Amino acid sequence: QWYQRRVRVHNLVIQYASQGRYEVAVPLCKQALDDLEKTSGRNHPDVATMLNILALVYRDQNKFKEASVLLNEALAIREKTLGEDHPAVAATLNNLAVLYGKRGKYKEAEPLCKRALEIREKVLGPEHPDVAKQLNNLALLCQNQGKYEEVERYYQRALQIYQEKLGPDDPNVAKTKNNLASCFLKQGKYRQAESLYKEILMQTHAAEFGGRRSNGIKSGSWTDSEDKDNENTEANSMPYGDYGGWHKAARIASPTVQATLK
Predict the structure, then answer these.
(1) Which one-letter DSSP state was computed for residue 227?
(2) Which one of 22, 140, 155, 228 has the lowest number of neighbouring Cβ atoms within 10 Å?
(3) Contact by Cβ (8 Å): 46, 36
(4) Are 237 and 259 within 8 A, CB to CB?
(5) What is the C-alpha separation between 18 and 193, in angstroms, rounded?
(6) Is 216 left (phi over 0), alpha (psi -120 to 50) or beta?
């Protein structure tokens, strides 16, 4: 009964946040945190999960300082209770890196993103699609620091993973090609960029007129884990967002949530 109530509150917070009803989502989330602390104590994985959610609600409101404090606390709890190589730790590291990236703190974000990548590679294997998502974020951080050789390497590896594991028609393939083409343009590599854009156009045309789904391409965007994916903010002319919407990724069906919300 307690678990079912926890699940309902968890999803209600996400529902209200996705509707922009923060005046409802924030108090509900805080109340859930208070209840969890009373029953499980502050240093519990469920508390970390709710802290993570509240942090992302704050991030939606551009309350970056509050979000940073909560994410760092969630990270400490997860490292202590789940172990330093747990997927939930990688999720929190990733979300903290995205937060720093949105604030333009690329140097602070990069080591967090790299550590998240290392955990995902160790736990999931080097060819897992979640590894490709992490590579996407790392490439964005490097691109904003002008590290184009690294950017190309990360995008190309992500592209290879998506093509091999999800197939050439998966939307992430076109998105990653678009990101890589953008990187080429910034370096004046127009032929390479043109080649990729042609591939994307041909693929999109086939999807529209050949009965396949459209790829819904958006330029370089952040991807959050367990916790956020939407499009907003610009930094150095690079739009930041994610593949989907964290509100969907943070529901109980999320593998990371299932691994931590017991």
Answers:
(1) S
(2) 22
(3) yes
(4) no
(5) 35
(6) left
11: β partners: none
If you average pLDDT over every residue of the chain, what do you get?
Answer: 84
Query: Tokens for 77?
Result: 């709890």
Residues 19-46: tens digit of each pLDDT: 999 999 999 999 999 999 998 999 999 9
What are the φ and ψ backbone dihedral angles of 232, each rounded to 5 degrees? -165, 175
- Letter for the amino acid at 1? Q
Cα separation of 144 and 146, whole Å? Answer: 6
List the one residue out of 128, 50, 57, 58 whose CA is nearest residue 87. Answer: 128
Q: Quick one: tokens of 227?
A: 């916790």
Residues found in the chain: 262
- Whole-angstrom CA distances from 172 to 72, 160, 204, 228, 259 are 29, 11, 13, 16, 25
Q: What angle is formed at CA 120 by the lines to CA 220 and CA 213, rounded to 5 degrees? A: 45
Token duo for residue 138: 């790392």
pLDDT tens-digit readout, 180-234: 999 999 999 999 999 999 999 888 777 666 655 545 555 566 565 554 433 332 2
CA 136/CA 118 separation, integer angstroms: 14
Place of tokens 């172990």: 83
Tokens 């140097």 belong to 107
Please state, in angstroms and rounded to a whole number, the distance separating the CA atoms of residues 244 and 240: 12
Residue environment code for 132-165, b if the CB has 16+ CB neighbours within 10 A, otherwise e: bbbbbbbbbbbbbeebbebbbebbebbbebbbee
For residues 31 and 6, give the distance between their C-alpha atoms in angstroms, rounded to a whole number: 11
Is residue 97 pLDDT above 80, yes or no?
Answer: yes
